[in-house]
TrEMBL record, chains A, B:
This is O-phospho-L-seryl-tRNA:Cys-tRNA synthase. The modification N6-(pyridoxal phosphate)lysine is found at K213. It comes from Archaeoglobus veneficus (strain DSM 11195 / SNP6). Keywords: Protein biosynthesis, Pyridoxal phosphate, Transferase. Belongs to the SepCysS family.
Amino acid sequence: MPKFGFIERQTKDFINIDPLQTGGKLSEEAKKALVEWGDGYSVCDFCTGRLEEIKTPPIYDFVHETLPEFLGCEVARITNGAREAKFAVMHALARPDAWVVLDGNAHYTSYVAAERAGLNVAEVPNTGHPGFRIEPDRYAEVIEETKKKGDVVLAVLTYPDGNYGNLPDAKRIAKICHEYDVPLLLNCAYAVGRMPVKMKEIGADFIVGSGHKSMASAGPIGVLGMREDYSSALLRKSAKYKKKEIEFLGCTARGVTIMTLIASFPHVVERVKQWDKEVEKARWFSAKMEELEIVQLGDKPHNHDLMFFESQKLYEISKKAKKGRYFLYKELKKRKIHGIKPGLTKHFKLSTYMVPKEQLEIVIRAFEEIIDRYS
Amino acid sequence: MPKFGFIERQTKDFINIDPLQTGGKLSEEAKKALVEWGDGYSVCDFCTGRLEEIKTPPIYDFVHETLPEFLGCEVARITNGAREAKFAVMHALARPDAWVVLDGNAHYTSYVAAERAGLNVAEVPNTGHPGFRIEPDRYAEVIEETKKKGDVVLAVLTYPDGNYGNLPDAKRIAKICHEYDVPLLLNCAYAVGRMPVKMKEIGADFIVGSGHKSMASAGPIGVLGMREDYSSALLRKSAKYKKKEIEFLGCTARGVTIMTLIASFPHVVERVKQWDKEVEKARWFSAKMEELEIVQLGDKPHNHDLMFFESQKLYEISKKAKKGRYFLYKELKKRKIHGIKPGLTKHFKLSTYMVPKEQLEIVIRAFEEIIDRYS
Ligand SMILES: Cc1ncc(COP(=O)(O)O)c(C=O)c1O
Ligand SMILES: Cc1ncc(COP(=O)(O)O)c(C=O)c1O
């Protein structure tokens, strides 16, 4: 028992470049909301039957007005995360023996959501090393092939994907999907809350975001936007409990997480406007890494803070270093830099999002020193 | 936009007797954990592939050792809440055209989870006014009848239920279910974290708890315990991502909620030991209310802090009062007492859990004054 109770977070005063962590850091407003709304079902004090209907605090307005506008969709809902949003869509649209088409860069949660919904999965391959790009026309090929095997009830595009931070031509992919009468879901776990993105401008049918990943919110929480046409399938009500939406089991983020999402929202709206600067900073970082012969893969020039690197040099070092492939992790840890997974040297990803340039300079210097030291 | 950002909780300094709220108030340790672990995916800094495998913070030990012992089960998992745990079980066990048997006092989320899992629902009726009891032998009847229509894949008992706070003879119900080869799930959203309850002692197959309802945790979060025999169905892994459990979409409470659950856990273990005192206090409160002719329905003497009351008198007043049926809510609000739903007068529920006796005395005095004033 003594090991439970309050526990400290070890990485608290580290520079954190883990892609999972950079977009989920709380705003000051969200930190205050945490304390105010921390208790269990705090938001349910004035509930009249469903989370999205709560007027005090103003969840109703947030979900019915603000969020649809922000996502560029007609109808929005709160979920327990991006994966739960994807599962809700897949589960609502699933039919026996049907298929979903995923991009080859899809996050594992898209795949697992499809498995849980009982859907077969077909994948649109990426172009391989070094670009790993998703080419729109391949969607046509894969959908066509898959239609021979069964119904294709949904296509998914990861925008950007969580490995390379690539941003494919989503508009064209939406158009292609619609030529085959297949709705398109944009998995924007790494976009919504970081960069400008609107479902309607792209022409997609669903859009999914992650509060704890990219909206400066405590988690788990996600957002789901959809076209009105799909709301009857997604928002189907219980036969017995007329207010309760089946796919959301009545209510999803029934606690503090919705309040940190709302608290950070003005901050998120502002930071999205600064996206150009974040891209510029990412490109600067990528160039600096390449000076060290750590090569950035994926889209180039890059359009996102999430970047994937390849380093033959670090890999060679790992073969001889005393701590083996853990040397990089340990050297970075010594310098209070966190976020590159222990054991990785040849390939790793990181994110520069909202990390101040001075901190990124420390990161670059660290790589430089480490390479020097071991070479 | 100005209405978003930080928002105050209006009921902050109220006496809160809403059954949703009394067991979810954060412990001091949990309040500290909130601030420490508030950021997005904070707990994932040292993840090696799945939430339950994380050793820093000690989620692994919590889920694999502490929680099974606490719940009296063989295998435990963290979920996004009680309803999500119930859905996971129903979804994993569902077959086309199959049935689930629910007690007539089941929470709406059990029903909606069954609908989402595509299961038909049969109900074991309660005994009606005034006891609303669930009699074990009725499970035999209903299972027998339902088996004529199709497979019965699961039975659910709400223990206690969320309306009357009744505690049926769960052991006998488990025995009966097993005579028909039907596994029993105990929905202990109002038990786990409040009162002593062990799955194995009752002889059930699944047990579900709610962190934000009864374990002094921020939400949404729940716990699911099961017998080993069911783990292959429930913990089925992805075909492609070998570490990821399909029913949990890889990870569930991937953020601050698991840390408040862990932070409060020692406090919760201690308070469960004080359960007798809570029952005594509830009985005392019930007796005081009955002196005011506000009659407690359900089990008598009562065995839980959640109680359902009936008042002909308050109902009569509501017909004539200026504010109509809202008079009671408004009078209580004036006295900074929250938790009885606006508009209710004849029937309402409340909880005395962890509410100090002095505060309950204020509540009783309030009812007395209100009745006096309007009579
Ligand atoms: C591309 C992508 N999609 C979805 C997710 C899952 O997000 P959530 O935790 O909100 O389910 C992730 C998480 O890493 C991701 O990288
Ligand atoms: C008896 C009962 N079960 C389940 C639930 C749902 O709990 P959760 O919010 O953890 O899904 C409730 C909530 O009110 C309840 O009263």
